[in-house]
UniProtKB/TrEMBL annotation:
Possible taste receptor. GO terms for molecular function: G protein-coupled receptor activity; olfactory receptor activity. It is found in: Cell membrane. This is Olfactory receptor family 7. Keywords: Cell membrane, G-protein coupled receptor, Membrane, Receptor, Transducer, Transmembrane, Transmembrane helix. InterPro entries: GPCR_Rhodpsn, GPCR_Rhodpsn_7TM, Olfact_rcpt. Signal peptide: none annotated. The keyword DNA-binding does not apply. GO terms for cellular component: plasma membrane. It comes from Fukomys anselli (Ansell's mole-rat). The keyword Cell division does not apply.
Amino acid sequence: ADICFTSSTVPRMIVDISAHSRVISFVGCLSQMSVLLMFGCMDGMLLTVMAYDRFLAICHPLNYVVIMNPRLCVFLLLVCVFISLLDSQLHNLVALQFTCFRDVEIANFFCHPSQLFSLSCSDTLIKNLVTYLVGAILGFFPISAIVFSYCKIVSSILKISSSSGRYKACSTCSSHLSVVCLFYGTAIGEYLGSAVSYSPRKGMVASLMYTVV
């Protein structure tokens, strides 16, 4: 998911820089946005599932193997794929309803969903509804689940008496937590921030963080 998510923007960015081109067709823009959203959403959903996995491994180690069985893993993966496809197609359906644009320039190195929506002359109600609804569902709820998991994890780690046990528990979560902060922090801030007051420079820096870094 990570590789596909990054591949939806970086190769095109490299080609555009080398060819000194800033042009993309509307169909190409929608295709890029669709792939970006699908794998970006899948990435976020999988990070949430991984937080649940860490929660079970640290807080309920004796029941971990029983709960996280192959059947549940496959089910969670399918749920992630379904939500990702739904999110991607919802944005595409809204974008396909656009009949005119106030401008044809996106201040970013890829077709950013909320920026593309802001260029439309169409009614802002549907655009804002989709932006904030999807932002809330795919941002607030996963982040809430991750925060809840880590609150329980920290509580369990503090109860461990040995320092080596604490270190081992923390080391299993550090890489995941750093990716969560980098990915969710910049992505949600950029996605919702561009719908309110957008700064091109800050937006591109945030985009580089969650798509490339």
